[in-house]
């Protein structure tokens, strides 16, 4: 009988009105890389949060090295040598690498922290596991990939022999992903067992030994990665055949740009330059993709284009007409104060001109969760005569229009009167796309369109975005998913430290080259 370092037997987790995990059993061998694969809401993170002591299971057992254990908190899990690196890192930016790693577990002598001893231990761990990180560097000076290594070191410092990585490659460049996988293999070679939560099929096949596939809270498959294809995994995740490759026909773009960005500079909330002297055009019939590691000015750029955030300087032209960039025409100091208290210019004016926005955060900026699907589908269109008469909403027309969009965009909902909060993430995103793509649009600003969605929803959304381009509309796509950028874009702009580092024609470059510029590289250095 095969020995397992970890077993989770018949785990069920019930929340009010939702069963997140139902009778889930899975195991982990010593020195194994195990992947947990599934669509958004399949129950992957809930299962790992149970293992790490963040949730208590409704029923079921956890067996660790042959003994039943009960975790009441992450502290209990850590004591049993489990570690978890969350998708959103938990680091103190103004502290050093060492200070972050030892926080709460400081070595001491005579009541004083032995910082030299801590630095030595961190350096030893870094060398042993090929993590290559400076123990004295401050977190705020590190790239995302290096910050992730600090999180891994935090777990190793606490003697973790089982390490859980939650969506570990979500914000990494291809080069950083490559280095991460080298680190993961080094961990295994040194006796650590690894569980990876992911939705990226290629990475499962590249790094994992086995994979469990979850769908709607249940395990629907267990496979050795050496004998399974990407299509098989996708079909198990979604429960049907999925087209994983995007077919994009060549298209001649228009002669004049729909939107032109000229020398645009935008400040962030700390009044620092987030976008620095950026210029580019987007033409009818093309998709321009902006690639970059998160936090390099993409959010501020999109907010300035849609009018949510004031720009410091520069110009935006829409169909040759200059758009307003600043609400206040007063002194620079007063304008900064205006921006601090009221971060919005006339968004309504932009929408009426034919600019549509698919925001990066569908819950905060795309939907009103407490409202019906129908109400969300007409947001921004209520004053139009079709839905409004003498100050009263025409509900018959609203529901008729909504039912048409629900059918056209394949939104899975019992009715248009259903609250949008009751929909899955993929169907919530379809509501936004249905609303924005059904307007009299000329330019679509699309941000992170498939974040957190399963392969089935991604397949559908990519198809709709390409339909816009093929119908002659201009599209600016901002995404952290490099594969998505390559699948959809005709041209790629790489954004680094608030500037356009390089422009590429998509079919004349590759992900490694784009990833190099995403990290701030220069072509001369790369060729050397």
List keywords for this structure.
six-stranded mixed β-sheet; 3 domains; Rossmann fold; alpha/beta; 528 residues
Number of domains: 3
| Spatial gap, N to C terminus | 54 Å
CATH class of the largest domain: Alpha Beta
- Tell me the Rg in angstroms: 25 Å
Q: What is the SS-derived class?
A: alpha/beta
- Shape annotation: globular
- The helix fraction, in percent, is 25-40%
Tally of helical segments: 19
* Major sheet: 6 strands, mixed
What does this structure look like?
- By secondary structure, the protein is an alpha/beta fold.
- It folds into 3 domains: 6-238, Rossmann fold, CATH 3.40.50; 259-354 and 440-527, Rossmann fold, CATH 3.40.50.300; 365-439, no CATH class.
- 34% of the residues lie in helices and 25% in strands.
- It contains 19 helices and 24 strands.
- The strands form 6 sheets. Strands 6-9-10-3-11-12 form a 6-stranded mixed sheet, sandwiched between helices. A 6-stranded mixed sheet has the order 18-21-22-15-23-24, with helices on both faces. A 4-stranded antiparallel sheet has the order 2-1-4-5, with helices on one face.
- Helix 15 runs parallel beside helix 16.
- The longest helix has 16 residues, at 174-189.
- The radius of gyration is 25 Å and the shape is globular.
- The termini are far apart.
- The relative contact order is 0.11.
